[in-house]
Amino acid sequence: MNLPHRPALVSTVDYHTAGEPFRIVTGGVPSLPGATVADRRIQAAARLDHIRRLLVQEPRGHSGMYGCFLTPPDDDGAEFGAVFFHNSGFSTACGHGTIALATWAIEAGLVDPGTQEFAIDVPSGRVRVTLAPADGGLAVSFRNVPAWVHRRGIALETPFGDATVDIAFGGAFYACVPAAAFGLEVAPAFLPRLIEAGRFIQRRLDADGLASHPTDDRLSGVYGVILYEDLPGGNGDVSQRNVTIFGDGQVDRSPCGSGTTARLAVLADGGLAEGKVLVHESIIGTRFEARIISTRSESGQPAVTTEVTGSAWRTGTHQFALNQHDPLGPGFGLG
After folding, report:
1. N or C: which end of the chain has fewer CB within 10 A?
2. Residues 19, 103 within the same domain
3. How many CA atoms does the CB half-sphere of 25 hold within 13 Å?
4. 125 and 161: one domain?
5. What is the pTM of this model?
6. Helix axes 95-107 and 257-269, enclosed angle (nearest 10)
């Protein structure tokens, strides 16, 4: 098997954010050209896809693996940039990854430990993070790019039942649908059917071209499908449990950071007041807390600025190797 640019060693620091893995590449890869992180994402797909596959595929990774390549920022207004990748390719946004990156930046000394706020550039734009001590670690709150409802009330016929779908942008486009529309619950026992439904919806909506970004086509397309259910709440706040199916059937173990932003846009359109909290629970029971900070107009339509809070925890430091005689090359996938 002839592979270009086989890496001898690739160094990473690994975290999990609310259960979802995040692999930060810290060495062993060439720098990416481009004027912005959005440009470097395109270059990463062309130049570093073999390294992405090495890090996310088995036996070094798994079907749910996520990570990033570090890059310079777009300008001096941010500390650094990040190009996100997963098992199916390269994404435009990653909230759980942003939380992990902010934690790593403090722990690695890239940012002064006394710093309470800084910015990270990602393909969808500039994300600002705020840090606070919490439960032996850090609570990281990130203010995402503006989020808005793209389409409401799409009637969709599926093999699992008829549903009404909303599409919202939160750094990437997400389709939102109640799990109960398909007779499902957001619970591990229902996961195979949730994945099946999510993949069908994503492919159907993309085939119909229903998620086109108004100013940057690189951000177009349905990235993930959020299947959700309501939980008891109070004081005007909202509690929901969700699972986000993204890529080619990948499952977000966390409540999905950029997906949480998209949910807030939908909930704001439905009347959720500014400052009220969305307690967003994942399929494994971990939580993010999120709120609408302000409203604005984006590309001629109402949009919201959101803040999502969670914590990340380091799981290991690694050096991955690829022997040029390894018959499995960069790896394989079984799901």
Report:
1. N
2. yes
3. 30
4. no
5. 0.95
6. 130
Average pLDDT of 258-280?
94
**Using CA atoms, how far apart are residues 267 and 68, in angstroms rounded to an integer?**
30
**94 assigned to active site:** yes
pLDDT of residue 1: 44
Instruction: Report the percent of the chain where pLDDT is more than 70.
Output: 96
Range of the domain at 23: 9-135+314-321
Q: Give the total number of structural domains in the chain.
A: 2
Interatomic CA distance for residues 101 and 69, integer angstroms:
11
- Helices 49-56 and 37-47 cross at an angle (nearest 10°) of 80
Is there a domain that residue 333 lies in? no
Q: What is the pLDDT of residues 281-297, one digit of tens each?
A: 999 999 999 999 998 77
Catalytic residue among 68, 94, 176, 256: 94
Tokens of 7: 């890496």
Residues 115, 174 within the same domain: no
In whole angstroms, give the CA distance from residue 309 to residue 143: 9
In a domain, 141, yes or no: no
What is the pLDDT confidence band of residue 146, given thresholds at 50, 70 and 90? very high
Strand 89-91 and strand 250-251: pairing?
A: unpaired
**Of residues 154, 200, 157, 163, the one with CA closest to residue 182:** 163
Residues 15 and 89 in one domain: yes
Instruction: Report yes or no on 99 lying in a domain.
Output: yes
